[in-house]
Amino acid sequence: MGRTIVEKIFDRHRIDTPGGDMHVIRLDVVACHEITTPIAINDLVARGKDRVFDPDRIKAVIDHVTPAKDSKTATQGKILRDWARRHNIRDFFDIGHNGVCHALFPEKGFIRPGYTAIMGDSHTCTYGAFGAFAAGVGTTDLEVGILKGVCAFRTPETLRIDIAGDLAPGVYAKDVILSVIARIGVNGATNKVIEFGGPVVAAMSMEERMTLCNMAIEAGGTCGICAPDAITVDYLWEFIQNDYPDKAAARAAFAEYGPDNDAHYADVIHHDVSGLEPLTTFGHKPDQVKPVREMTHQKVDQVYIGSCTNGRIEDLRVAAAVLKERTIAPAVRGIVSPATPKIYRQALQEGLIEIFMRAGFCVTNPTCGACLGMSNGVLAEGEVCAATTNRNFNGRMGIGGMVHLVSPATAAASAIAGHLAPSNRQPEQGA
Amino acid sequence: MKTFSGNVLFLDRSDINTDEIIPAKYLTEITKKALGPHLLEDLCLEGFTPGKSTRDKQVVVSRSNFGCGSSREHAPWAFEVNGIHVVIAESFARIFRQNMFNGGMLAVELLPDTIADLFNRFAGRRTRLETDFARSIFTFTADDEVLTVPFELSDFDRALVEAGGWVEYADANY
Ligand code: SF4
Questions:
Q1: Does ligand 1 lie within 6 Å of residue A102's CB atom?
Q2: Checking CA distances to A245, which of A142, A199, A291, B36 falls within 20 to 30 Å?
């Protein structure tokens, strides 16, 4: 019988089936950040197992709160930093080189088709955009990953979502994934891998696929996953050019990680995005979604553009196109956080930072910052933020604050309007 | 292997969730030990006093869907650092249950009738549990009342407990 993408990846990585429906798989990447890793490090030390399975396959970054804002976050950073040094983890990214993990690691070429990856972070699912299996895990699994380079998972079931139709101008990957979550609900993919396919996904850039897979977890999915193709090869080419004679060869090798025609799915959903409008969430659950058009009465105190969902260069380009030669409403605090130093530099070179600053935005260093309400834009009680992030949970950006999840275009248009508003400007051709 | 015998704490409610077991504000702690004083801090239950009721207890007996809510492993750790290595209930939230075994601890399901019987006969009394892990038998004792209850474990769960948890199991086997 045919296999799904994740079944193929499991078959290549399985080293044991210890019982209880568990599959122990080999890991190609164990990624770490300073919020969840220190407790794993301290526990390994306490067990007398302060070891790492392979320093080259461990990637670490201080990204959630950076620069440190208080003694507690400084200590978290220090534990990770000291550990990375004593184990010779070369791919450790600190101040000056650090950025949001799920933007930084893919940008460095660390995630490849057919790979397996874990991290103590829910949005690890982002890496599925490359045709990899990547899952957020708890501390014990992270410890075992660090120590042995393995992780146990239950037999993965796959939910296939085929996305077809014509995307209207002004409608982006963020709107697509919000429409998917609204359709299947916050538990629609619980404990399943979501395999995204269909012509809309095939036409998406890697950045857009990352936005899509990033929010798989908001529907309960362990991982979002897209079949690798020519677009994947183009994105990764600078990192893999010595491994293959040409792009066609890389593509042929990656084709192994496409799903079979007769693969078995737990369910197949055909999702038509023709006629889709810019969307926003309206409650504290990511499946509470409405057209922005119906929410224009909602004033916003803050607009946040950044995060592992929509803090990449394409997102900044889209937002800057909307903001160009305009200023944001006087009552709105605009914050933009390019997700990595590379993105920041690119945005500088392209003149995007200038556009943001002229419009009245504050530009922060690359960090998770306001996304999880730990720094750089925490909301006061009763305040409202239009954000390009992925979670609108109660209290996420500050106790008593409300977050409306939107695309970068909608965020920028809302900053100008002072209330939730769809954008009527499109990026210029070739921008 | 951890020890699975000791004094019993009865929590007479279903759906005791991970927020009640360990409030979210302690998730920023960087050691398991720091969670210790906060076990069940937010649990409101008649006859239960946080800090006091858990003192000198090594076993918890509760009703259904124990450990529901978030997937935080801090919940089993909060039990672990307090010396409570076994929770017995009608049913568990799946992730909590797995997290207990991953920590080398026991989350054992017994039939609703058996749980009801335990509450009827032992709740409110100074009760002790002796666990015969090898033979899968619990023995509850209060004064001169004794009840023996067999339990079941899968081979993998048993192996995890014998190893002392998933970290130790994986380190020994892979
Ligand atoms: S940007 Fe937000 S969602 Fe992404 S890793 Fe950081 S805190 Fe998590």
A1: yes
A2: A199
pLDDT of residue B94: 85
Q: pLDDT confidence of A29, banded at 50, 70, 90?
A: very high
Model confidence pLDDT, tens digit, residues A344-363: 999 999 999 999 999 999 99
Q: Compute the nearest-CA separation of A38 from chain B (Å).
A: 6
Tell me the residue range of the domain where A6 lies: 1-276
In terms of domains, do A371 and A226 share one? no
Give the confidence band of A429 by pLDDT, cuts at 50, 70, 90: very low
CATH number at residue A36: 3.30.499.10
User: Which tokens belong to A150?
Assistant: 């393995």
Query: Do residues A279 and A291 make contact, with C-beta atoms less than 8 angstroms apart?
Result: yes
Q: Alpha-carbon distance A269 to A195, whole Å? A: 10
In this predicted structure, the answer to whether residue B163 has a pLDDT above a threshold of 80 is yes
CA B9, B11, B17, B22 dihedral sign is negative
Work out how many domains chain B is built from and give that number.
Answer: 1
CB A42 within 8 A of CB A12: no
Exposure string of A320-345, with b = 16+ CB inside 10 Å and e = fewer, is bbbbbeeebbeebbbbbbbbbbbbbe
Q: What is the mean pLDDT of chain A?
A: 96
Cα B88 to ligand 1 centroid, rounded to whole Å: 36
Q: What is the pLDDT of residue A196?
A: 98
For ligand 1, the distance from its centroid to the CA atom of residue A371, given in whole angstroms, is: 6
- Give the pLDDT of residue A1: 84
Residue A136: its H or E element: strand A133-136
